[in-house]
Design a protein that fits this description.
alpha+beta; two-stranded antiparallel ribbon; 8 helices; 8 strands; 41% helix; binds iron/sulfur cluster
Length: 220
């Protein structure tokens, strides 16, 4: 893994307290990472909650334009849709700016950093050549991520990542297409389709849903 990491990064591993050269002067004049990203901007439940809250749309309504579903290792998850001739994100406005900047998904906040999930923390690597600006300056990783309630957010990301891994393994071992479909439908409904309370504590509600999902994983 670390050999691969060296090929695509500057070879350093960063914590949230480290300085990293990613600050891009507010991305002035550039929106290169908001177009042509295929299905790579995968969304987690927090991202979808933020998108539903900021747009006032339900998950199903977002599926009509802004997001789509695709299978990642047998697990069906939502991602930002890239549409039109220039394959642009639906939240990119005519001026080339993100219309939902404060509510943008986690992967948009992280780019051009990549996450490394460890047992009880997340560290980061810098993807070489991913950001199109060459005159970037240094900024503290936590400031770049710009995530409210960072401790709760980190715990949420670790739990979601762990569940994803376990489900991917379980689905890979499952032979029945019908069962795979039923598991995916259950998870989509549990974590994405069923609305979260717009003004509620997302992390608390996610914890309750996670407890239900763990029963599913343990039962397999
Ligand atoms: S949500 Fe915003 S930052 Fe993310 S790809 Fe779309 S326009 Fe870009
Ligand atoms: S490629 Fe770099 S400068 Fe351009 S929008 Fe993305 S993060 Fe900002």
């Amino acid at each position: 893994m670390f050999q691969d990491l060296h090929e695509i990064s500057d070879g350093k591993i960063y914590t949230e307290n480290d300085m990293v050269r990613v600050a891009s002067r507010d991305c002035e004049g550039c929106h290169a990472c908001c177009v042509g990203m295929g299905n790579s901007i995968v969304l987690d439940p927090l991202d979808v909650w933020r998108l539903c809250t900021v747009t006032g749309k339900t998950f199903e309504e977002l599926l009509q334009r802004e997001i789509e579903l695709h299978a990642v290792d047998g697990l069906i998850l939502p991602n930002l849709a890239m549409t039109g001739e220039d394959e642009r994100c639906a939240f990119l406005n005519e001026a080339g700016r993100c219309e939902i900047h404060a509510s943008r998904p986690g992967l948009c906040r992280t780019f051009p950093l990549g996450r490394i999930y460890e047992e009880d923390t997340i560290r980061y690597f810098l993807q070489t050549g991913a950001c199109k600006k060459s005159d970037r300056t240094k900024i503290k990783v936590s400031r770049w991520l710009d995530v409210p309630e960072p401790k709760k957010n980190r715990q949420f990301l670790l739990e979601w990542h762990s569940l994803r891994r376990r489900l991917e393994e379980a689905l890979a071992a499952e032979e029945s297409e019908e069962t795979k479909k039923a598991v995916n439908m259950y998870l989509l409904r549990l974590f994405f389709v069923t609305p979260y309370q717009a003004q509620g504590d997302f992390y608390e509600e996610f914890g309750q849903r996670m407890a239900q999902a763990k029963k599913l994983v343990q039962g397999r």
